[in-house]
Every structure is written in C-alpha cells, then in structure tokens.
Design brief:
46% of the residues lie in helices and 18% in strands. It is α/β, with parallel strands linked by helices.
C-alpha cells in the first residue's frame, strides 16, 4: 500500500512539475530568426525582411503579445546574422532550435537561403513561411517539406507574367520580337531564366542574348554593351538588388535606351527611385508590383513608415508582412504553441492580410504580382493583368537623362 501511495505521489509530483513547466513556457513566446545583415544579401534583407519583422514585432508588443486561448502572451526575440552564407544560416537556425529553444522560427531572405535551410526547418517541425523565395520547385517542396509555405509562387508564374506584358507591347507594335536576357548565377536567377526561355519562345520571342553572370559581379558595362549589340528592343535581367542597381547605373552611363528595360529584385524598392535614380525611373519595368490604391496597402505603408522610418518595397514587403499575419492567425486559432497543429491550420485555412485574402494551394500562394512598372512616381502592378488594380504597361521607356543631371 505504501509503495502504491509513494508511486502515486511521485507521479502526481512529476505531473505537477510538467504542468508548471508548461505553464511557465506559456509566459512568453520565443521567436527567433537568422537573416542577412551583412554580405551580398544584406541590401535585400534590409529593405524587405528585417523592417517587416520589426513592424510585426512592434505590432505584437503594442497588442501586449500573441493571443493563446484566453491569455495574451508577450514575446521575446532572438536574432542572428547569417552573413549571407548558407552554412552560417543553418548553424544559426540549429542554435535557435537546440540552444535558444525558440517556439517559432522566422525565415531568411532569398530563394537560395530558404532552399538551403528548408531541411532544417523540416527536421525540427517548424513552419517555414518562405516569403522571399520564388522557385519552380515550390509545389515539390510543399510535398517534401509539408511545413514549408511558398508565398511568392513559382518562377513560371513570373516568366508567364513577363511574357504577358511583352506580348501586349509587341501586339501594339511597341517592341520587336527580340529579347536580351541576362541572369545572376544564383538559384533565383537560374530558375527564372530557365522558366522564361520556354515562356518567351511560346509567346513568339527570340533570345538575342542569353547570358549569366556571377553574383559577385560589380562592373556591368560589358553586359550592357552586349545587350546593345543584340538588336533587341527588350532588355531583361533576373537580378538581385546589387546587380539591379549596377545594371541600371551602367545603362544610364552608357546611354543604353531599349524600349523595355526590365530588372528584377530591387526595382520595386523605393530607394531605386528616391536614393539612386530619382526622375530616371519612369517606364522601368521590374519584378513585383502592388495595387497602389488598395486601402489595405495604404494603411500598411503608413504603419511601415511610422515604425521603421522607411518605405516598404512594392513586392515582397507586403507579402512578407502578410506571411507573418498568416502565421500569427494560425497560432491564435490553434490557441497554443503546437507547431504540428499550426502547420495544419496554415495548410488549410483562409487568412485576411495586407496582401488580401490568402488561401494556399498545396502550400503555395498563387495570387502574387510578378511584373510592375514605375509610372507617375510609384511602382504599379502590371501582371498578372487579372489582379485587381493592374495598370497597362507603357512603352517605349523614356530615354535616360544624363547621369550628371
């Protein structure tokens, strides 16, 4: 009898300790992330990812925390610099999980970085809201890693939107059927170029130039000269921010004025106009877009500026914040930090966000702007043209003003 009583008391004591530990774990929610604060990815992360993490954390703190059942639980945040290095990224995420024991992981910036860290998120069962990754492997990754969610859709969606814009302009007689295409030799550039070759061919375009360049490239004058010599009316660069800025600067310096000038990540950044090229951006087409007149975007923009001191970009910034809204709404619907249940809710739920209503298709967000253009001082969404708020593309692009003006 004594043995049974002792065993019962021991079991009760152990249960109480476990319950006490669980209750203590709910006193705060640990949120951790590793992101590129230094290295070649830092400009993109510093515009798109980091400010939106700051805004979201600010909004949570203003509300007192995240709602778990009847309680509102404050958060604590642990962050590391992945130095734009995939090995350092994986090490940092391992540290967040195994040493810091975070409840929720946020994702890094960029396609290659999200693909590199996907197995680690999956191994530990954390939801991966890949808000700055575009890959034609998105549906495959959603099956392989059911915890991963690809918020920018697929590379083919981007290629088809570009082909849609160029087809409209060719039909209006604004451009010829030749395209000069260059791409950064990184997962993002490689995949978009691979998706664009068949999309452009199907739309009746010939690739007069098809070249890649290293991510470390700094002098873009030879690329611009090759594009000029190609005879194409359309220049397309699947570029990351440093290359986007470098290519634009080289085109202005070399007075290279194609009817269509398209660059990718960074074109939709406000600093592209405000800090770098000023009144020289009108007519430039690039990746991304927003419905400028959408009240949800306007409210989000005002809050972003108020909290971070900078404008959001006109593509992945609202998608990044929307991905955090999806994550938070899923957590609050589950009512506790049960990552398996949170993942299931993200897979199946419908969410109200700054980017509109989001319901994922096999872990992929298919409702995304993929082509936009600087018109009248802001970057407007062009395609898919079926998106609400889409504007018509304008060509030819006005000639660059001299660089010293």
């Amino acid at each position: 009898m004594m043995k049974t009583l002792t065993s019962t008391l021991a079991a009760a004591t152990a249960a109480a300790l476990l319950l006490g530990g669980a209750a203590a774990a709910q006193d705060t929610i640990k949120i951790g992330y590793a992101v590129s604060k230094t290295g070649p990815n830092a400009p993109g992360a510093g515009i798109t990812t980091i400010p939106n993490y700051q805004l979201w954390i600010h909004d949570i703190n203003e509300a007192g925390g995240i709602k778990l059942g009847d309680a509102v639980v404050p958060i604590e945040v642990i962050e590391y610099d992945d130095q734009s290095n995939t090995e350092e990224l994986v090490r940092a995420v391992e540290r967040l999980v195994n040493q810091d024991e975070v409840d929720i992981l946020l994702t890094p910036w960029g396609t290659g970085m999200n693909l590199a860290v996907g197995p680690t998120f999956n191994k530990y069962g954390y939801p991966q809201m890949a808000a700055t990754a575009a890959t034609d492997r998105a549906y495959e990754m959603g099956e392989r890693w059911p915890n991963s969610f690809w918020m920018l859709g697929t590379s083919t969606m981007g290629a088809n939107s570009l082909a849609e814009v160029l087809t409209a302009l060719k039909g209006e007689g604004k451009i010829n059927d030749k395209v000069a295409m260059v791409s950064v030799a990184d997962a993002f550039g490689i995949e978009l170029a691979a998706a664009s070759r068949p999309a452009l061919e199907a739309a009746g375009f010939d690739l007069a130039l098809d070249e890649t360049y290293p991510i470390t490239t700094q002098d873009f004058s030879q690329i611009i000269n090759a594009a000029r010599d190609s005879g194409a009316d359309t220049f397309v660069a699947f570029s990351y921010p440093p290359d986007t800025f470098g290519l634009t600067g080289a085109a202005i310096a070399g007075a290279y004025n194609p009817a269509v000038f398209y660059t990718a990540v960074g074109t939709a950044f406000p600093i592209y106009k405000d800090n770098l090229f000023h009144d020289n951006v009108d007519g430039v087409i690039g990746i991304g877009g927003v419905d400028i007149d959408d009240p949800k975007f306007q409210d989000y923009r005002q809050r972003h500026v108020a909290v971070t001191g900078q404008e959001p970009d006109r593509w992945a910034s609202p998608i990044t914040y929307a991905s955090l809204e999806v994550l938070q709404q899923a957590i609050e619907r589950v009512g506790k930090i049960d990552r398996e249940a949170i993942i299931k809710e993200i897979q199946t739920g419908t969410f109200d966000t700054v980017a509109g209503e989001i319901k994922l298709d096999r872990n992929v967000n298919a409702n995304v702007w993929w082509a936009g253009q600087w018109q009248d001082g802001d970057f407007h969404g062009l395609a898919p043209a079926s998106m609400e708020g889409a504007v018509k593309p304008v060509a030819p692009k006005p000639a660059w003003k001299p660089a010293d003006k």
